[in-house]
TrEMBL record:
Requisite cofactors: Mg(2+)
Gene3D superfamilies: Nucleoside Triphosphate Pyrophosphohydrolase (3.90.79.10)
Listed name of the protein: NUDIX domain-containing protein
Organism: Streptomyces johnsoniae
Family: Belongs to the Nudix hydrolase family.
Length: 133
């Protein structure tokens, strides 16, 4: 059995597109979020990571789970899986690239190939639900 990387992500949708972020030095975009710190809940992790990456404040009371996806982790040995719990949440402020984030972009289903496998699973589910075009 390989390793499991446990993450959470903020699904921010507008006009059938999803907000994606690209870290400095990386090619792929991913749904903003990250790994939890010891003792953090999903929502606490989400609020902290999104504040660090996009400089916006999420409303923790508005967080709504939209799905959890698991896939092979990019750039890790075979059998290393990443599990990503995805949430929507209201926010204050305008998302902008912050800290390790070099670029943000609105991605459509056609951009699916520009994301890691676990994000592709989320893209597929959101498209199936009619939320991503």
């Amino acid at each position: 059995m390989g390793r499991l990387i446990d993450t959470v992500a903020w699904v921010h949708l507008a006009d059938g597109r999803i907000l994606g972020a690209r870290s400095r030095g990386k090619e792929l975009f991913y749904i903003p979020g990250g790994k939890r710190e010891p003792g953090e809940s999903d929502v606490q992790t989400l609020v902290r990571e999104v504040r660090e990456e996009l400089a916006v404040a999420l409303d923790p009371d508005s967080a709504e789970h939209v799905g959890t996806y698991t896939a092979q982790a990019e750039g890790h040995p075979d059998g290393t899986l990443v599990r990503m719990a995805c949430y929507t949440a209201r926010h204050e402020g305008t998302p902008r690239a912050s800290n390790e984030i070099e670029e943000i972009a609105w991605l459509s289903l056609a951009d699916r190939h520009r994301t890691p496998l676990v994000d592709q699973a989320a893209f597929d589910a959101l498209a199936e639900a009619g939320r991503l075009r």
